[in-house]
Inverse folding.
C-alpha cells in the first residue's frame, strides 16, 4: 500500500483517500462523470437564478399564444405545447430529479447502514433472523408497493423520498453486514471493547467509519437507480405533479407528442441518459479507486 | 434438497399473509373510496352499492371476510368492471403480461449472454469495449425513452411494425426489445464479470494447456460457473420485468395485467388491487424459489450448507 519512494520525496505517506483520489484521477471516464454530475448539479440548483437572469423564462410561465416552437434564439431548446421554455423546465426538473435522487439515497443509506451494522455486529440468532427478513423482502415486487403508496396517499414529494428509500436499502444492508463481520474481529475493535465502550458507540464510531469506501461506492450507484425509479413513477403519473417538472415528467410529456415535437422527448431523454451514464461511470471508477469488491449484490 | 424446498415453501405462507394484511389496511386507511369517481350517484345508491359489496361492515369484519375468501382462492368481484370477478380478469390479462415478460427475458438472455461471452473472451479489445459500451447505454436509457424511440424509428419512419397493439406475432417485437434491453445490458455485465473470474482460474489454464479448443473451454468448463451471477440475478430480473411491463404495456397498448393494476389502484378497486398484488407477489416468490433451487443444483458448493 505505502510506496516507499514517494515517502522519501514527500516525507509523508499518502493517506488512503489521497491514494484513492490519484487512482480515480487516472480513470478518465470516471472524472468525466464527476465533471458532468457536478456541472449538472450546479446548473440545476442555481436554476431559479439562471431562469431569471439568463434564460428569461420561468419553468411554469405559459405562453399559449406561442405554443410549441422548435429550438431557436429566444427559446434555446424550444417550448412545449403550453409555450413553456424547455430549458427552464429541464433545469428545474433536474433540480427535482437530483434532489429526489440524493434524499432517497440518504434515506436508504441510513436504513441500510444501521440495519446491516447491527446484524453484522451482533451476529448469531439475531443476524440470522434479520438477514432472512432481507432475503424474503428481496423476493418481493416492491415497486408495486411504491405505486400503491403513491396512489393512495397522494403525490407528496417527502413520501416519495421515503417510499423509494425504503425500497432501496436491502443491498446496502447486505454489503454493510458483510463488511462489519470482517472488521469487527480486528484489534482496534477489541481495544474499544477493552476500554469498556458501549456497543452502539463501537458500531457507529469505530466500525462504520471503516466502511466508508463501500458505502460511498454503493451510494453513488444507488443515486441513478433512484432517479430512474422516480421518473418511472412520474411516467405513470404518480411522481412529481404539474406544474412542477422532473425529468420523468418531461419525458412523459415529450413521449406523448414526440411525432410532432420531437425535441420535447429528445432533450430530456439525452439529459437523463447523460446523468445516469455519468453516475454509473463515477460509481464504477470509485469502486476501482477505493478497491471495493463485490459491492454489486 | 426436498427439506430445503419444503421449508422455503412454508416460509411463503406468512409472507403472503403479511402482504395481504398490509395491502388491505393501506387501501382502507387511504382517503377516497371505490365509488368516488362515479358520476353523481345519490347517497342511497352509494349506500346500497357499499352494502352489496360488504363495505358497510366494520373494518375488521371486512378483513376477516376477505381473508377467508382469499384462502379459498376467491379474489372477489371488480368494482370497475361490474359482473366480472378479479379471478377472471387476471386469467385474461396475466397470460399477456407473462408472454411479454418471457419474450423480454429471452431477448435479455440471448443478447446479454452473447455479449458477455464475447467480451470476456476478447478482454480489452474492440470485441469487449463495443458490447460493454452498448450495455452501459442500455442501462442508462430508461424504457420510457427507449419505447417511444423504437416506435418512432421502426413503426413510424420505417413502418416495419405497428406503433401499438397486440394482435399479430410481430407486434411482440418492439415491446419485448424495449422491456428486455435493460436486462440484456445487466446480464451482459454480470456474465462478463463472472466468466472473467472463471477464465483466470487454474483449471482453465490446464484445459488450455491440454489443447482444448476455445469453444470447448467456454461451453464445457467456464460457462457453468461463470453463469452463476446471471442465474442469481434472474429472480430480481423477473420481478423487475413484471413491474417494468407496466410502463411498456402503457406505451405499446398491450392489454396486460400491469395496466389493470395501475388503473385499479387509481380507482380504489379494492378487490382488484388486492388480487393483483397477491398474484404478483405469489408469482415472484415462487419464481425466486425456483431460481434458488436452480442455483443450488448448479453450484455444488452450496449443497453442503
Amino acid at each position: 500500500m505505502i510506496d516507499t519512494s514517494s515517502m522519501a520525496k514527500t516525507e509523508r505517506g499518502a493517506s488512503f483517500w489521497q491514494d484513492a483520489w490519484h487512482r480515480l484521477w487516472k480513470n478518465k471516464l470516471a472524472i468525466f462523470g464527476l465533471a458532468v454530475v457536478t456541472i449538472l448539479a450546479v446548473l440545476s440548483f442555481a436554476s431559479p437564478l439562471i431562469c431569471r437572469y439568463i434564460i428569461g423564462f420561468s419553468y411554469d410561465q405559459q405562453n399559449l399564444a406561442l405554443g410549441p416552437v422548435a429550438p431557436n434564439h429566444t427559446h434555446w431548446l424550444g417550448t412545449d405545447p403550453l409555450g413553456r421554455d424547455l430549458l427552464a423546465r429541464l433545469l428545474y426538473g433536474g433540480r427535482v430529479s437530483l434532489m429526489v435522487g440524493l434524499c432517497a439515497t440518504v434515506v436508504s443509506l441510513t436504513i441500510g447502514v444501521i440495519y446491516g451494522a447491527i446484524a453484522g455486529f451482533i451476529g448469531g440468532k439475531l443476524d440470522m433472523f434479520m438477514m432472512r427478513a432481507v432475503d424474503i423482502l428481496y423476493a418481493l415486487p416492491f415497486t408495486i408497493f411504491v405505486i400503491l403508496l403513491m396512489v393512495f396517499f397522494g403525490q407528496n414529494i417527502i413520501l416519495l423520498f421515503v417510499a423509494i428509500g425504503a425500497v432501496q436499502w436491502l443491498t446496502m444492508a447486505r454489503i454493510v453486514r458483510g463488511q462489519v463481520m470482517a472488521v469487527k474481529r480486528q484489534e482496534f475493535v477489541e481495544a474499544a471493547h477493552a476500554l469498556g465502550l458501549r456497543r452502539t458507540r463501537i458500531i457507529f464510531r469505530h466500525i462504520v467509519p471503516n466502511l466508508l469506501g463501500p458505502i460511498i461506492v454503493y451510494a453513488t450507484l444507488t443515486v441513478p437507480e433512484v432517479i430512474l425509479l422516480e421518473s418511472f413513477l412520474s411516467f405513470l403519473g404518480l411522481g412529481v405533479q404539474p406544474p412542477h417538472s422532473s425529468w420523468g415528467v418531461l419525458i412523459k410529456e415529450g413521449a406523448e407528442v414526440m411525432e410532432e415535437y420531437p425535441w420535447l422527448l429528445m432533450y430530456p431523454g439525452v439529459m437523463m441518459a447523460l446523468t445516469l451514464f455519468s453516475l454509473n461511470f463515477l460509481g464504477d471508477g470509485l469502486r476501482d479507486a477505493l478497491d471495493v469488491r463485490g459491492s454489486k449484490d | 434438497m426436498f427439506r430445503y424446498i419444503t421449508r422455503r415453501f412454508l416460509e411463503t405462507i406468512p409472507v403472503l399473509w403479511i402482504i395481504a394484511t398490509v395491502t388491505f389496511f393501506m387501501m382502507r386507511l387511504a382517503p377516497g373510496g371505490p365509488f368516488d369517481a362515479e358520476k353523481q350517484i345519490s347517497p342511497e345508491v352509494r349506500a346500497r352499492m357499499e352494502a352489496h359489496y360488504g363495505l358497510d361492515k366494520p373494518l375488521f369484519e371486512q378483513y376477516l371476510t376477505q381473508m377467508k375468501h382469499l384462502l379459498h382462492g376467491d379474489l372477489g368481484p371488480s368494482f370497475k368492471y361490474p359482473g366480472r370477478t378479479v379471478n377472471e380478469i387476471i386469467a385474461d390479462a396475466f397470460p399477456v403480461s407473462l408472454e411479454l415478460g418471457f419474450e423480454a427475458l429471452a431477448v435479455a438472455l440471448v443478447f446479454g449472454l452473447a455479449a458477455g461471452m464475447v467480451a470476456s473472451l476478447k478482454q480489452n479489445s474492440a470485441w469487449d469495449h463495443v458490447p460493454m459500451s452498448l450495455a452501459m447505454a442500455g442501462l442508462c436509457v430508461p424504457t420510457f425513452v427507449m419505447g417511444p424511440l423504437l416506435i418512432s424509428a421502426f413503426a413510424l419512419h420505417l413502418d416495419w411494425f405497428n406503433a401499438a397493439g397486440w394482435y399479430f406475432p410481430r407486434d411482440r417485437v418492439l415491446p419485448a426489445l424495449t422491456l428486455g434491453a435493460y436486462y440484456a445490458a445487466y446480464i451482459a455485465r454480470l456474465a462478463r464479470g463472472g466468466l472473467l473470474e472463471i477464465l483466470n482460474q487454474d483449471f482453465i489454464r490446464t484445459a488450455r494447456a491440454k489443447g482444448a479448443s476455445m469453444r470447448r473451454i467456454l461451453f464445457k468448463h467456464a460457462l457453468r460457473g461463470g453463469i452463476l451471477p446471471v442465474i442469481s440475478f434472474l429472480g430480481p430480473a423477473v420481478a423487475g420485468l413484471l413491474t417494468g411491463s407496466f410502463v411498456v404495456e402503457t406505451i405499446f397498448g398491450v392489454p396486460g395485467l400491469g395496466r389493470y393494476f395501475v388503473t385499479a389502484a387509481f380507482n380504489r378497486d379494492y378487490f382488484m388491487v388486492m388480487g393483483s398484488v397477491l398474484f404478483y407477489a405469489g408469482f415472484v416468490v415462487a419464481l425466486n424459489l425456483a431460481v434458488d433451487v436452480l442455483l443450488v443444483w448448479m453450484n455444488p458448493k452450496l449443497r453442503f450448507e
